[in-house]
Amino acid sequence: MYYKRQGLPEVDEIVLCKVTKIYPNSVFVDLQEYGENGIIHISEVSPGRIRNLRDFVSVDRQIVCKVLRVDAVNHHIDLSLRRVNTTQRQQKLDEIKQELKSELLIKNISKKLNKSVEQLYAEISKKVFKEYSHLYLCFHDVIDNPHLLEKLGIEKSLAIELEEAIIEKFKPKKIILKATVSLQTYDPNGVEKLKTTLTAIEKISQTTTINYLGGGHYQLTIEDTDYKEAEKKLKQIEAIIEAFQDKLSTGSIEREKTEN
Predict the structure, then answer these.
(1) Average pLDDT value over all residues in the chain
(2) Of 19, 24, 58, 117, which residue has the fewest beta carbons closer than 10 angstroms?
(3) Is 187 exposed, middle or buried (0-12, 13-18, 19+ CB in 10 A)?
(4) What is the CATH number of the domain that holds 71?
(5) Contacts of 15 (CB under 8 A, 6+ apart)
(6) Is 8 part of a structural domain of the chain?
(7) How far is it, in rounded angstroms, from Cα 121 to Cα 117?
(8) pLDDT tens digits for 135-189?
(9) Range of 95's domain?
(10) Model pTM?
(11) Residue 2 lies in a domain
């Protein structure tokens, strides 16, 4: 990992560490983002009594810790493993994963341009880190902001190469939910009732479409970049179809999921 932060971490900061040594009452680690050393006392490894620290950690294992104390004069950093909750751990690991993905993208471009990866990383990060704390945050913004890299001061030809690679690697995956909707009614105002129901379905979102197939059947398509959001829209449509039903009207939805 090329990413390094300047200075020392702050108290309560969540950091990625690598175990270097294990003693009977403490664990020594390297803080991967800072290039500093830290220590975890046995009482901060796990709640309850610990007989053997090696049941919880091992040398070279990467762990997510919380900073408890920082002695800036002696560069002494006390850490806790047990005070990191599941959400904090996952968020940190996701952050590191995204940053490594960004570094790999730069590595691939360095081969294409026949440049040293260290040299290219330094060239890009020097510009990006003036505005962003991480490369991946900048790269995500590039998706919706063409020429952002040039605005940050990156040379045009390199910015173009980067932008093409970023769009290919970081563009959100499109989720497509498809379903067949069947609506039938014998209501005297059936035409108006159908029209109202179909309009309500289309208004769920701009990426929700419904097309007539014939015989009271309709093709429903929902597009989104978030599967949970797409599912939420589908449930809203199911509620609309349920409201359509009465003694004179029937409605159903049969779904099929595909991802592009």
Answers:
(1) 93
(2) 24
(3) middle
(4) 2.40.50.140
(5) 9, 31, 32, 33, 34, 38, 64, 65, 66, 67, 79, 92
(6) no
(7) 6
(8) 999 999 998 898 999 999 999 999 999 999 998 888 777 889 999 999 999 999 9
(9) 88-170
(10) 0.67
(11) no
